[in-house]
TrEMBL record:
GO terms for biological process: mitochondrion organization. Belongs to the prohibitin family. SUPFAM superfamilies: Band 7/SPFH domain. It holds the Pfam family Band_7. The keyword Protein transport does not apply. Gene3D superfamilies: Band 7 domain. InterPro entries: Band_7, Band_7/SPFH_dom_sf, Prohibitin. This is Prohibitin. It is found in: Mitochondrion inner membrane. It comes from Trypanosoma vivax (strain Y486). Residues 1-122 form the Band domain.
Length: 207
């Protein structure tokens, strides 16, 4: 008695990529027989028709599709690869009286050498990114130092020009401002007394 319901099956193929990397692919399909073609299916393939039809078709199509991609592209373009395999298999199995309801790439396994190469590439990319960050940070520090030096030079130039224009008056103003600042800092302290005089002396009075 034929089972006409949708059934799953996992198909496996070992094949090569465009850049000659070996890859082991596991494919999961959902399929069912076309009811109107059951007599033909039974006559040509018997009760285990799926065992006779699906592995050979999937092997043929996977080899053809995978050969068109590089190893990294199989990962990067996984959805596109899966869609292409589904399109080709759907057309092929229909010739044998089957309907392909769904297909997915459940596993893609590469050889050890390729995985080592991928890991080394990732490490190299991380090192390059770290070096780029260090260089950028160094450049930013250099730029900040240049800007700071230019600012200090400009400030010194402006002060020099102001002194030349205003003479001793500007220096006296700076001294007064400094004295006011010091006084504001010491005023809250009870053990400090201000004595008037030409020297503006401050004496500490111990209790």
């Amino acid at each position: 008695r034929f089972n006409v319901r949708i059934r799953p099956r996992v198909l496996q193929t070992m094949t090569g990529t465009k850049d000659l990397q070996m890859v082991n692919i596991h494919l999961r399909v959902l399929f069912r027989p076309q009811v109107e073609r059951l007599p033909q299916i039974y006559r040509e393939f018997g009760m285990d028709y799926d065992e006779r039809i699906l592995p050979s078709i999937s092997n043929e199509i996977l080899k053809a599709v995978v050969a068109g991609y590089k190893a990294e592209e199989l990962i990067q373009k996984r959805d596109a690869v899966s869609a292409r395999i589904y399109q080709l298999m759907q057309s092929k199995v229909s010739q044998f009286g089957l309907v392909l309801e769904d297909l997915s790439l459940v596993d893609i396994q590469f050889g050890k050498e390729f995985m080592v190469a991928v890991e080394q590439k990732q490490v190299a990319q991380q090192e390059a990114e770290r070096f780029r960050y260090v260089v950028q940070e160094s450049e930013q520090k250099k730029l900040a130092a240049i800007v700071r030096a230019e600012g200090e030079a400009e400030s010194a130039r402006l002060i020099s020009e102001a002194i030349q224009r205003s003479g001793q008056g500007l220096l006296d103003l700076r001294r007064i401002e400094a004295a006011v600042h010091i006084a504001s800092q010491l005023a809250p302290m009870r053990n400090v007394t201000f004595l008037p005089g030409s020297g503006n002396l401050l004496f500490r009075v111990d209790k």
